[in-house]
Design goal:
This protein is of the alpha/beta class. It has helices at 15-28, 46-58, 67-74, 77-80, 89-101, 104-112, 146-153, 218-228, 233-242, and strands at residues 3-8, 32-35, 62-63, 116-121, 124-129, 160-163, 170-174, 177-181, 195-202, 208-214. Helix 3 (67-74) crosses helix 5, helix 3 (67-74) packs antiparallel against helix 6 (104-112) and helix 8 (218-228) packs antiparallel against helix 9 (233-242).
């Protein structure tokens, strides 16, 4: 019997996007919800997002840790952003602000999240991770050199890899591997401001994945970010409003 897993992540403190996506996910009636990390940084409501995610976990959802969750919890910027030589003042300001909005219990929750979770159905394994198998920072972007992609996806025996990190939704097959990047629920970079999520169907035959997009009040979130007034918020607001990376 098939098992349907709703996959979402990269919420980035966007409570309105998360709630809109969850309403549509509920109508799909999945057997499991899996969240691929990056819960709080950049958006205006990190505490509300953590509360919602923790409630989902209590109801049976599985949650993994993203690289920006490490930054917010512990200010370990080298671990969170190893590709950067230095952290910009706007990025540091947003990280410290998100940290300050969370309770000690919430911060401990972010620290305790695992880097990966596995789901096995009738011999088919789904690996839920943030960026790629074995890494919270090395993503599986579509323009990655094919040899690097192969090296990253073969770090696991899982037939299906559910991930995020790139903020670009994508489903593709690579040999016997099915890669489902659910995109970003709250901070998309692919030109669509809607909340992105996916449904992965696991059964004894061929696994499948389908991408979904949920419209929500992105302008309201953009306005909330603009009103917050942190360095860089004008760019964060534009990203939320347009669904495109702006710097």
């Amino acid at each position: 019997m098939a098992t349907r897993v709703a996959l979402l992540g990269d919420i980035h403190g966007n409570e309105l996007a998360l709630d809109a996506a969850l309403r549509e996910i509920a109508r799909e009636k999945p057997d499991l919800i899996a969240i691929t990390g990056d819960l709080v940084l950049n958006g205006p409501r990190p505490a509300e997002v953590v509360a919602r995610v923790r409630a989902l976990e209590t109801e049976g959802a599985i949650v993994v840790q993203g690289n920006t969750d490490i930054a917010v919890a512990d200010f370990d910027y080298a671990a969170a952003f190893p590709w950067l030589d230095e952290i910009s003042p706007p990025q540091r300001a947003a990280t410290e602000w998100a940290h300050d909005q969370l309770s000690d219990e919430d911060l401990d929750y972010l620290r305790r999240l695992p880097a990966e979770r596995r789901v096995r159905v009738d011999g088919t394994m789904l690996l839920v991770c943030h960026a790629s198998p074995g890494s919270q920072t090395s993503g599986l972007s579509a323009d990655l050199d094919p040899s690097v992609t192969v090296e990253r996806v073969t770090r696991t025996d899982a037939r299906v890899i559910g991930c995020g990190h790139t903020h670009v939704a994508e489903v593709r097959e690579l040999g016997r591997k099915l890669i489902c990047n659910a995109g970003s629920c709250g901070f998309a970079y692919d030109g669509d401001a809607g909340a992105s999520w996916a449904v992965v169907t696991l059964d004894a035959d061929e696994p499948e994945a389908e991408l979904f997009r949920t419209t929500y009040e992105a302008q309201a979130v953009s306005d909330e970010l603009s009103a917050r007034g942190l360095p860089g918020d004008v760019y964060r607001a534009a990203i939320v409003r347009t669904g495109r990376f702006v710097r």
